[in-house]
Amino acid sequence: MIAVKLIPHLLAALCLLLVLLRCFASRRKSVLLTSVCGLSAGAFTVLLLRSMPVVSPYLLLKSLLGVGFLALWGVSVAVNYRKNAVALDKNEGGIVSSVAALAGTLLAAFAAGGIAIAKLSDTALATFPPVLLLLVVVIVAVIVGGGATFLEKQLSPRVTITPVGMVVAVVALLLFSASSILRLDLFSPLSMKVMKGVHDLVHQSMESVLIPDHVFVRPVVWKYIGFLFGKEVGFWGGMVIWFTPPVLIALAVSSRKLPSVGHIRQGAQRRKLLAGALREQRLQLLLPLFSLCVLAGAAYQSSFPTVEYWDPKPIPVVANEGGMIILPKKGDILLEDGKIHKYLFKQKEREARFFVLLTPDGQLTVDLDACAICKPDGYGQAEGSVICYYCKTLIPLDTVGKPGGCNPVPIPFTVKDDAVVIDALTLINTWGATVQATTRVKEGGK
């Protein structure tokens, strides 16, 4: 079962090393050695950091992925500014280029190794002794490196890879590998940032121009405003940002000028030269187009994760004569078992949905089953995080209970006589203030 989970990540690492070996064909041995060391070092580092609760390996890996995506954007803009950059000689020597090649290889392999080992749960890793686990990591890294070397030798010499093609393929493969891991996925947070940016822009514009419930704002206007507040804007905006770099690189390659043949008298030689240039151009288009497919797969995995979430049915609760909701910490439900426990409170025509959760630092938190940004579709809990069902944003468990962003809205509470006590009026008013208004706008106004 563990091996099955790692197959997509190992295949991505294999393709990544294959691209690196062909791009830096003049440095095969050093690139291969650096790749194997990088894969092993990435896995070792993640294993070490996972045993240290103070440091998060996911933050390190996600930062590397973010820097890689920004670098891809920079490269895509640069090659369109200077289109002859796509024709850089792969075999050009020099100390600077050698150091850059090996440094880039080490970082890419490090990220690939770290992502692969991050896929395994703490329970799965605990079944293996540390020494055996480290030995297996090294053996797998050597096998992946050997497989990439074998496949690279089978490729036709005509298949050449430019540094630009290498960058887009490597970043796409890393993002695809990370997209199946909730805490490393970049596409869903990107969509959420776009949605939040549009939300804030529209909200501030409406507040500065007119009162939100202005009598002269027609229902059709509210429909457009509701569309801007929907998750579709964030999704399609994220898609544009996600796919633009490989598209720009493909345009740069396809629009590159063909070599001048005016000085060649023989027609056959001219046609041969032009045919060779066109063939090379088509081959250089393969990696950007391949990367588009890989990024599409990453976006699909991010939008439709295969993770099963813990999402209990809300339990109805009532307030006592003093207007307090009292939830015993122990009984039929153990509030301190680390799982989300959802509740539903109704007061005449009004209702509020909330949950109680014990965070990793041992503190109880009471929060609405909604945030102040998204439609109140609620949250589900996976290993180490909760997820907003509306925008698919992942929230680490240690930040639940803190206000802001897509985090669940916290509710004040006290602990008395081994029970959680919540003011019912505060709960219902907080729900109305933070959820009902955004629901109305998202559904198209009045």
Indicate the structural class: alpha+beta
How many beta strands in the DSSP annotation?
Answer: 10
What is the alpha-carbon Rg in Å? 27 Å
Strand order of the largest sheet: 1-3-4-5
The description of the largest β-sheet is: 4 strands, mixed
State mean pLDDT (0 to 100 scale): 82
Low-confidence stretches: 85-93, 440-446
Structure overview:
With 446 residues, this protein is an alpha+beta fold. The protein folds into two domains: 2-189 and 233-303, no CATH class; 315-442, Rieske Iron-sulfur Protein (3-layer Sandwich), CATH 2.102.10. It is built from twelve helices and ten strands. The chain has helices spanning 2-23, 28-50, 57-81, 95-118, 122-126, 130-154, 163-179, 187-209, 219-228, 231-254, 267-303, 424-442; strands at 315-317, 324-328, 341-347, 350-358, 364-368, 379-382, 385-388, 394-396, 414-416, 419-423. A four-stranded mixed sheet has the order 1-3-4-5. The two termini are 52 Å apart.
Q: What layout of secondary structure does this protein have?
A:
Layout: H1 2-23, H2 28-50, H3 57-81, H4 95-118, H5 122-126, H6 130-154, H7 163-179, H8 187-209, H9 219-228, H10 231-254, H11 267-303, E1 315-317, E2 324-328, E3 341-347, E4 350-358, E5 364-368, E6 379-382, E7 385-388, E8 394-396, E9 414-416, E10 419-423, H12 424-442
Parallel strand pairs: 1-3
Antiparallel strand pairs: 2-10, 3-4, 4-5, 6-7, 7-8, 9-10
